[in-house]
Predict the 3D structure of the following.
Amino acid sequence: MKQLKKYIFGVLFILIIISCTKSVSTPNDENEHESINRVELIFTDNGATPKSYIVEDPDGDGGNPPSRIDTIFVITGKQYSVSVKLFNISSGVVKEVTASIVSQAAAHELYFIPSGITAVIQKTDKDKNGYPVGFQSNWQFSTTGSGSILLKLMHKTALKGANDGPNVGHSDIQTSMPTIIK
Amino acid sequence: MALSISLAQSQKCKIVLSGVVVDASNNAPLDRAVVEIRELGLKFITDLEGHYHFYNLCEGNYTMVVNHISCDSITLKIQIQKNLIKNFRLPHSLNELETVSVSAKKDITLNTIKEELSNKIIDATRGQSLGEILKNVNGVAVLQTGSTIFKPVIHGLHSQRILLVNNGVRLESQQWGSDHAPEIDPFIADKFIVLKGAGALRFGNDAIAGAVLIEPKPLPKKAGKMGEINTTYFSNSRQYVINGMFEASPINLPEFSYRIQATYKKGGNAKTPDYWLYNTGLEEFNYSATAGWRKNRFNTEFFFSSFQTSLGIFLGAHVGNLTDLQNAIESSRPIQNIDQFSYDIIRPSQSVHHVTAKSKIQYLFLNDHKLNLVVSYQNNQRKEFDRALLSPRPELDLAMTTTIVDVNYESASSKNSQYSFGTNATLQENIWTGSRFFIPNFRSQNVAMYVTHAININKWMIDGGIRYDFKSLTTYRNKSDAVSSIDRTFGNPSGTIGSTYKINSKLKWLFNTTFAWRAPQVNELYVNGLHHGTASFEIGDPNLNSEKAVNFSTQFKYQYDSSWKLDLTIYNNIINDFINIIPTTPATLTLRGAYPTFKYIQTNAILRGVDFSLQKNITTHLSTGTKTALLWAVDQKTNDWLIQMPANRIEGNITYSFNTKYLKQSEIEFSWLHVMEQTRVLKNFVDYIQPPSAYNLLNLDFGTQIMFSKKSINFRITIFNLLNERYRDYMNRFRYFNDESGRSINLRCKIKL
């Protein structure tokens, strides 16, 4: 029985040591998340003042739907140089993450898909394999009208090819922006 | 004349010797007893009911030897002239070193419907995962995620409604996830027992569907050493498995014995009949060590195991949003795929490390009553990697620790009565650190008390048990540096009563009634996040209450002349406040696109079904069998079917056994499986794709034992999906994306050293 008592006391001592963890009661901030929840399209028209159009969802996935979806206004006959910037908003802190995605350009591609309008869009930047990326592009509109542009950032690890369609890969961003052409 | 002599001899050599081996102290059947006819060199290992049988014996005098690990052996001379039923009652060994869990288990599961995997099935499935092994039990299906993740489903229920008891310790890990496979190396065990129904109260109140006992063989009791090497190769995924085991008890220290064991597994992409599935490889390394000490009335054992796995998730099944999912479904072949073989594991993937440490101690009092104490510690680290976006961190990163203390007092076995009582306490903590919130940190404490009693009255064997559990659950959340905690408490009794009535020597009737309950899990209460693998947004309900289940089950077992064996099980599981996850509106809108929303709700459910099996030995060499599992699962509130339930199935086999001079215990088996289309699906929910059609699978298996320099080598070749059938299964969550694996030629070799 002496052996039994020693054993029980030994076990209780180990249990007390094991049980004294504090980190369970100091959890991480669940509002901090590594997602892209703000997208900015910057339109530059031949030296004119650049115009920004923004979509954002500050509380990330779930919770409230995106709180801001700007309408893009453009004019026929002009050529726009469009650059895309991506941001992470976490606990109210806005952090640009474009460079992080650009550094993984060989596994990503941006698509701009018009709906109800006609647009000629040409991507001008390339990844290390010479495949298009889409952070820099030229846009032209020939007829007036209103519709939308679907913006997709496709994640293409091990899948990216020269002329992939917009359904190859997995969607990192998929958001539609109303567009008016005058 | 020669013909008549030959006929007379052949008639004389058709005698059947059969019977049952029981524990002399309480008449409980003894499984795994070895019955040997010494002169003929024939051995038979008794089944769960203690049965043994020998066919085609000739008249004569024989020496029979009966051994069991927990009992003294019996040697007996018998004379055989005609078919004979000979039963054996084995006395308990005084220097018994039965494991604490097993000794405690016997009384509590006496009248629970159970099925143990045969040695043949264990040998034929070596190298496969636990879920794949268990689906050989009638009434057990698997919930599958791709070709590498298998979770057992007993009578339609899975995850936290099933207890997995590994070497006497209930597995505590993130079992709530439908894509989280059990962290157990099946090579640890030489015994797999599935308890159907809620009768496993000894291990917890929440085994609403049943329990699986995974048990290693006891440590060696006699001085000596033994080793074993197992290797397996699966042609489909080019997966190889190697396992080694060594055990010994030193001659100069016979009180001490130990065992070490390790397994390494590496597999590549799986292949359907038409294409490879990219990123479906796995790599696994597991090891364990056990050491035991026994002296006088004091026995103790320490056990440590480590399970570590990395597995890829099929690239084409990891969708970004609902649009991706629809695109994937509309394509006849996976569009996000690279149709080639590779051992590489890239994101998306899972990485899991599970450690178990256990200490158990048994003290045998002078009156042969026993005190058992088991203390265990488990640490589970789970990392799930979606596609990397802004950093290489895992999106889901959970660390869970669990400590369980179990004290049990057991009366000495007597012929008519046995009782036990005990208490156990559990402390569990879970911490998340991934780049995305899914479930909160929590601390859970559970205290339980239980008592069991078993009695024998004439032809009746009756047992029962009651248990009371009290559970507290504290969750901790941090929203923009505002930390809050929520406390929930749950307390309920649970109980079981069962009986076996021996109608005659051939027919036995068992019935069991159990009341069990299960407190809601943290994910069901508080989950709030994106589940990428399923392209769904899951939302918990913090107001959920405990599930309460009343389970009735009955079993008829009929055995005629050792050549017919029939088993019929009928069950009815009524679960009030059944926690279910159902699709709801509106869809969740994010910058990644739209996701269907799923919410946890409570309803009342009934799951009823039938398991039936029949075996017939046609001749000495030829036998056949069939089994079927039928299930009806209904949501009583909506009067609709419950989602994600296994389809009805029927399977059969025909086996030819033979021995030659060089090939011992050889057999060739041809088996087929028919899985019906699941037509019992939700009426008011249109799934992305209709349940897959019914399918048939044919398999061929050949196993033999070769004696080589006094060592035995077991060799087995199995061709799975012989016809390379193209099919999908309703219980595979990846049925939306790809076909199941095609033909695989599996080679297995076991060498005893």
The first strand of chain A starts at residue 38 and ends at 44. The helical segments of chain A are 2-19, 98-102.
